[in-house]
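Quick one, probably user error.
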C-alpha cells in the first residue's frame, strides 16, 4: 500500500501532497480537543504500536502479503485527529529511515493512509456505534467493521491517483480491480488485529479508549 517513487507522476504527487499538508494542519489544530495530560501518551504509544506491527506481514493470496495500516485502530483509541497525526508520523519515519514508501510519494501515502483511511474509519465506526447496543463489547466490533471497510477505501484512493497520474502501463480499471480485491482480504486481517487490540485495551483501561469515552453517559449533578 506504500506507494514508491516514480509510480505516480510529479504533478499528481505534488497536488495530493498539498492536500496532505492541509489535512495534517487541520489535525494538528483539532487534536488538542481529543487529548489531555492523561491520554496524550496514548497517541504516542499507538504510533509506536502501529509502526511495530506494520513490520509484520501476513499472507493474503497468490503470493501477496499485507500488514496493518492502523487507521481504524488509531481512530478508535485516540480519536480521528490524533490518529491522523500518529499515522503521519509513522509514514514519515518509514519513508525517511526505512525507504518504505518514496519521498516524492509521501504526500500520496499520507493522504491515503492517514486522512482517507481515518475519515472512513471514523464515519463507519460512529455509524455502527449508533446501531449497536451502548456497551463496551460493541466498541471492538464497530472498530473491526471500520477497519474492514477503511482498508479497501484507502486502496481505492490509490487507484484514483493512478488513474489521474499513474506512470505504469496497466489500465486503471485493472489496477483498481487488483487493489480493491486484494485489500478486501487485507482488510479482514486488519479487522481481526484491530478487534483483538481494542478488546484487550478496553478490558483493562477503558478510560483511555477514545471511542468508548465518547459513548459513556455524562453524570448530571442535581441540586435541591
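Nope, works fine. Designed sequence:
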Amino acid at each position: 500500500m506504500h506507494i514508491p517513487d516514480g509510480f505516480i507522476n510529479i504533478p499528481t504527487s505534488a497536488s495530493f501532497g498539498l492536500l496532505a499538508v492541509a489535512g495534517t494542519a487541520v489535525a494538528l489544530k483539532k487534536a488538542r480537543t481529543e487529548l489531555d495530560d492523561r491520554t496524550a501518551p496514548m497517541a504516542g504509544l499507538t504510533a509506536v504500536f502501529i509502526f511495530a506491527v506494520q513490520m509484520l506481514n501476513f499472507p493474503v493470496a497468490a503470493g501477496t502479503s499485507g500488514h496493518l495500516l492502523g487507521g481504524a485502530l488509531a481512530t478508535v483509541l485516540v480519536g480521528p485527529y490524533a490518529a491522523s497525526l500518529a499515522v503521519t508520523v509513522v509514514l514519515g519515519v518509514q519513508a525517511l529511515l526505512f525507504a518504505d514508501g518514496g519521498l516524492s510519494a509521501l504526500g500520496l501515502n499520507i493522504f491515503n493512509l492517514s486522512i482517507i483511511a481515518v475519515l472512513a474509519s471514523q464515519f463507519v465506526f460512529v455509524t455502527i456505534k449508533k446501531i449497536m447496543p451502548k456497551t463496551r463489547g460493541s466498541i471492538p466490533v464497530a472498530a473491526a467493521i471500520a477497519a474492514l471497510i477503511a482498508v479497501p477505501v484507502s486502496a481505492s484512493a490509490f487507484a484514483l491517483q493512478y488513474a489521474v497520474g499513474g506512470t505504469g502501463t496497466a489500465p486503471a480499471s485493472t489496477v483498481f480491480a487488483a487493489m480493491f480485491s486484494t485489500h478486501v482480504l487485507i482488510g479482514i486481517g486488519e479487522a481481526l488485529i484491530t478487534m483483538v487490540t481494542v478488546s484487550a485495551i478496553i478490558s483493562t483501561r477503558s478510560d483511555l479508549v477514545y471511542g468508548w469515552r465518547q459513548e459513556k453517559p455524562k453524570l448530571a449533578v442535581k441540586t435541591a
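The beta strands are 58-59, 65-66.
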